[in-house]
Amino acid sequence: MRREYSKAERLERTCLRVAAHIRELWEETGRSDTRLLDGLFIPDELVLAGHSHAFSAKGRREHVVPRRVVINECIRMVKAKEPDIAVAAFIRDHVRIVMISKEECERLDRRGAFKQRMPESWKIGGDIFARLEAAEIAWSPKAD
Predict the structure, then answer these.
(1) What crossing angle do the helices spanning 7-29 and 67-79 adopt, rounded to 10°?
(2) Which one, of 94, 69, 81, 93, lies nearest residue 23 by Cα?
(3) What are the beta bridge partners of residue 97?
(4) In Å, how far are 4, 141, 142 from 51, measured between CA atoms?
(5) Cα–chain-centroid distance for residue 34?
(6) Residue 3 carries which DSSP code?
């Protein structure tokens, strides 16, 4: 009989699987792929943080920390021989989705070129929503 997992358990298991894939790809090819952080591997329902105030059906999902930033840190951790459980914890803490409007997406890409990076003052472990704040995107957390 199949076991039912809580949302928190599913997220932990998912992040651990993704961490292992990142490590294995890096060991085999010397790189990894940002798509490992997308919906097929980490379902949005596990990481949806909220919606912008301007979000509509024509909007899109946005990783609050760009996938490239997350993957680069995961690779740094793998190279430093940190265990998959530590990489998984990093993924769990940094992969979140906020639904934003098309205009907000364009603003995010324009303001300081935040398309694939965080604000210059941001450091790993800092506020994961700093990029949205820097682009002046107001949002509300998802009610659980």
Answers:
(1) 70
(2) 81
(3) 48, 63
(4) 28, 7, 7
(5) 10
(6) P
Consecutive H or E run containing 51: strand 48-52
44 backbone φψ class: left, alpha, beta (φ>0; ψ -120 to 50): alpha
Q: Which residues contact 37 (CB under 8 A, 6 or more apart)?
A: 18, 63, 67, 70, 71, 91, 95
Structure tokens at 60: 């899109």
d(CA 37, CA 34): 6
Counted residue by residue, the chain has a size of: 144
Residues pairing with 62 in the sheet: 98
Which pTM value belongs to this model? 0.93
Contact between residue 33 and residue 71 where contact means Cβ atoms under 8 Å apart: yes
Instruction: Give the model confidence (pLDDT) of 55-89 as tens digits.
Output: 988 889 999 999 999 999 999 999 999 999 999 99
- Compute the chain's Rg from CA coordinates: 16
CB 65 within 8 A of CB 94: yes
For residue 79, give both structure tokens.
């190279």
